[in-house]
Design a protein that fits this description.
The complex is a heterodimer.
Chain A: E1 6-7, E2 22-28, H1 37-48, E3 53-61, E4 76-78, E5 82-84, H2 104-112, H3 119-131, H4 134-141, H5 143-158, E6 169-170, H6 172-190, E7 198-201, H7 208-218, E8 222-226, H8 230-241, H9 246-266, E9 269-272, H10 275-283, E10 292-293, E11 312-316, H11 325-338, E12 343-347, H12 355-368, E13 374-378, H13 383-388, E14 392-395, H14 404-411, E15 416-419, H15 424-427, E16 432-435, H16 440-452, H17 454-471, H18 474-491
Chain B: H1 60-70, H2 77-88, H3 92-100, E1 111-112, H4 127-152, H5 156-180, H6 185-210, H7 215-234, H8 237-252, H9 257-279, H10 291-309, H11 322-341, H12 344-352, H13 368-397, H14 408-429, H15 433-453, H16 461-482, H17 485-493
Helix pairs in contact in B: 1-2, 2-3, 4-8, 4-11, 5-6, 5-7, 5-10, 6-7, 6-9, 7-8, 7-9, 8-9, 10-14, 10-15, 11-13, 11-14, 12-13, 12-17, 13-14, 14-15, 14-16, 15-16
Classes of the chains: A alpha/beta, B mainly alpha.
Chain lengths: 495, 496
Amino acid sequence: MNTKLRATANNSPAGSPGAGRHVLIITEGTYPYATGGVSSWCDILLSGLPDIEWSVLPLIAGGRHVRPRMKLPPNATLLRPIELWSQERAPRGLSRSNADSGSLPTQLLRGLMPWQGDLNQLRLALVRCRLRPHSVRREFRAHESWTRFLAELAQLLTEGHSDSAPAPIYDAIEAARLYQSLYWVARTAAVPTPPCDLLHVTAAGWAAIPAIVHKAMHGTPILLSEHGVYVREAYLASISDTAGRPGHGATSPRLALGLTRAAYAAADMIAPVTEANGEWEMGLGVNPDKIRVIPNGIEPSLHVGPARGTKRVVAIGRVDPLKDVQTMMLVAQEVTRRMPEARFEYWGPVTSGQEQYGEACQRMHRQLGLGERFRFMGRTEDPHAVIRDADVVLMTSISEGMPMALLEAMAQARPVVATTVGGVPGVVKGCGLLAPPGDVHELASSVTTLLRNPSLARTLGQRGFERLHRRYTLSRCLGAYGTLIQEMTATGAPA
Amino acid sequence: MSGPNAGGPRTPRGEHPTRPAGRPRATKTGTSLRSAKPAAPVPPTAAIDRADRPAEDTDPYSEAVLEARLGRRARDVLEATVVLEAWTGRPARSAMNAARGLVSIDGPPLRALSSSDPFADSERSSVIAEGLTLVLLIISIAAWAAPIRTHLGPNVLSHAIRVALPLAIAFQWGLRSRYLGRPQGLACLARDGLWVWALLLLAVDAPLALIHGWGPVAAMMVPIFVGGTVLTRRGWGLIYAGVLVVGTLVMGLGASPDAVLAALTTITLAMCLLAVRSSKQTRTDERAGTVDRALTAALIGGAMGVLLVADPTVSLGVHGAYPAIALLPSVIGCYWGGYYLWNFFDAVPRGMRGVALDRAGRVALSDPAMSIFVGAIVRLIIAEAVLSALVIGLGQVFSGLLRGSDAITVFIAFGSIGTLSMLIGLLESFALQWAALLATLAALAVELVWPGIVPGGTPGLAMAAGASFGVLLTLPALVRRLAHSGGTLATTLWIQ
């Protein structure tokens, strides 16, 4: 473990730390409107720390008719979600002043879009949105604001930085898209937040906006949990989108960078799930003293059975470009060429919004003629049972934080073949085989090796099982969060 | 990568652009990444924010991966880092270090402009069917005048229309705002709104039906008119118009208007139910429009309806079919102009593509926003003028058939109403509902006080005065806004 990052070594039982505190947890597109991943983690956290009173403020995509998919525990209250990208107007305030200057869009632009934004100006602009919510829409709808924004954007694009190539040439459309995005930022900032002892932000992006404002107004400390690295995922998404809209590809990650920097600056503590995420955070200028790695945890099985030796390779995850399902199919093709009896199963739904990718995967599946050798199984309610039936658990992702599928494999003493991304190498230490992302040959060779050597597979699986019990238990994870919350609510930030 | 997640040119699957000595190999059993060229140690903090740190030597493999994945050079250190991390498996710190040597700060800027057109054309195939439906609807209703007068009395249709028209238009505007104006509007209505609207309709219709004389006729007209909007949205407009035509013919053959209207109401409501229920098969998570906006739209629609019937000198349907037929030019003109205005949400963004920032805030009458607006107004005026002349001409030729209030001022009045209706609709679609409502109410106020100010009773003059006042109120505001296409796009179309 990196000595610069403070690791948690707390093994205290869940529940007692932080008792009686009120924590506002802010989610983004996850809990309680989705299942798996961060949603499941939130559910475990809220249920696992029952003495804390939680309020859940979700940010969701607007314009969609959504219902919660997870039931909140009794100690949690669901607040009205903040809708991004919808027709809903910013909440109205009581004070009405005619002093709207038309400077709000330019202040947000200056705070968010340069390589190193003016975070102080950003904070003031966001607080202004909260104090005068009625003026947000009016200011953005004013022609004067638009012309000032254009002038400021033109100026900003001439400013260089040694870590960035010259800014792209914007046209009116991309400028208008950016203007609209800033409006959504302002609208998000305008939504009131309830009094609380701690603000717990679950992603360093849009979800941080209400917390930044709340802290600026009330001094409440902010705890930021990072499962993935928000800005890294934004860049990956923009790279995927580049073929369609290069302009958007330039705007979206830069906005994510601005939001991430603001979130990092405002957070009193940052709790990444892996050291690899911590490296990113430090790379973006976060003081290592603010970083405390809290790995995800899972309830370990006490007894596990041996693999059935059916040559079954299982993957669990969403059908998403980040999971690089297409590489997995190529791996399956290569493995089954060598071992025709091998069978691959991909468990998980297509990510909402990635239906086109899902269809491309199905097309590729047909083109490769994989048939029954590789099957898309859809969502599973019992990942443990799926993994129990597997001989090898495969993961070909190009980006990961700390995937739960790895922990589930370790919990069932199944060996893992995975890519060397994010926190994966840190978790799969001695209990699986690793290969670079996209390296079909190496991944296929690793899978074949384990299928042909059950004793090696068993040894690696057993090592994983033991490692999980040592480092990645649920009680350890909950205890670490409980302690951190207690420290932060007692003093504002841990010593 | 060959899927839609690919960004730019890619290498074929399983092959790497180059594999120089520094290429990291697979690691076994989780041991640390082996590399022929390990990352130089760097300070742990601010690895990418310090301009003075040493960059790694340029790595040809990394360069090749970047080129293969992006199809261009990296925009910044983070983009290069992400590519190296995701597609070569380098740890973050090493990737950040290597990335710094791969970003050129001296090259020409990239264009933030898509080469493909991201804006899909609107659905337009139903425009002729919808227009035809509208014409058949008006002619049919015009033809009800004589039988209703004969069977039910001279003032029944007049009173019924004066009440039914504002109510129906209010329902239409409200429905359109909340549901029908959306891509999956009918499916949304099927999912969460049908019973609400059915109850609302019942709440309005039940008291109407109890009014002696004209009440039942008005109560039946409201669902017939409102249902037409739903059925047209479903694409069943011609079937609906066909049903109306058959009903009108039956009425003309001597059948009781009450019975025919009751049958038409039943058929229309049944068709609506079928249309909405069948849309339920389309699963949608699209959100309906907001309630407050739909209510405001309904108020605006209602006020427009009152504007249409509040002038006592225009006696709709009382003196024969002519006044109702006189609506035809204005309705068709308004429909044609409004249809052209649909281009707004596609054409304005398309017209602004590639426009440099220094021109994005300028005033230009030739830019798409203003040119579409002017085009819509021209179409409206041409349609109203030509069709009015045609109807007047036909009225002269078939004077026995098309008798009634044939004063030219009635046509001017309806033309003004059509123009105001289009402008108010535009304001409403720009989320300027309160401005639209105030302008409509102001127009109505002028219409109502006009007879007191200008006595004489010229047919339609009060209506024309009110509508023209409304046009004068709305036109400058719209022109001022639309003169800036870039501003219209950013501040009006995309921020509602």
